[in-house]
Amino acid sequence: MTVEVGAKTEGKVTGITNFGAFVDLGEGQSGMVHISEVADGYVKDIHDVLSIGDTVKVLVLSEKDHKIALSIKQASDKPKPKYHSHRSHDRNDRKPQQHKPESFDDMMSGFMKESEERLSVIKKNTEGKRGGRGGRRS
């Protein structure tokens, strides 16, 4: 039996490395779950989440040259959020959304203004750290 990409199946964890876990799928087939595909959140140490001998539900991501890529987090039946839970770091968050596209000149002047503001803050913060009054004392 060959595994099909997109199929969900169960397997047993047979080995754990720093970068992932190996899962026996039965019938002489095994695949690997990368550490980024183990859980929904960040996993620093895979041993905190998995142990050898655990039975896990996995989703087959790909199969190439008898190497099978698996995912535990994508095999769960939980609905995925429509947006990222953390605050976006997009620069457009600071400005209200505009309905008409800006011209290049408008974008350039906005960039220059923002750049000058940032430079003035940097200069203000580093000015006092360059020796200050009196210079060196002997």
UniProtKB/TrEMBL annotation:
Residues 6-73 form the S1 motif domain. Residues 71-138 are annotated as: Disordered. GO terms for molecular function: mRNA binding; structural constituent of ribosome. GO terms for biological process: translation. Pfam families: S1 (PF00575). GO terms for cellular component: cytoplasm. Residues 90-103, 113-130 have a biased composition (Basic and acidic residues). The lineage of its organism: Bacteria, Bacillati, Bacillota, Bacilli, Lactobacillales. This is S1 motif domain-containing protein. SMART domains: S1 (SM00316). It comes from the Bacteria. Gene3D superfamilies: Nucleic acid-binding proteins. InterPro entries: NA-bd_OB-fold, Ribos_protein_bS1-like, S1_domain. PANTHER family: 30S RIBOSOMAL PROTEIN S1 (PTHR10724), S1 RNA-BINDING DOMAIN-CONTAINING PROTEIN 1 (PTHR10724:SF10). It comes from Companilactobacillus nantensis DSM 16982.
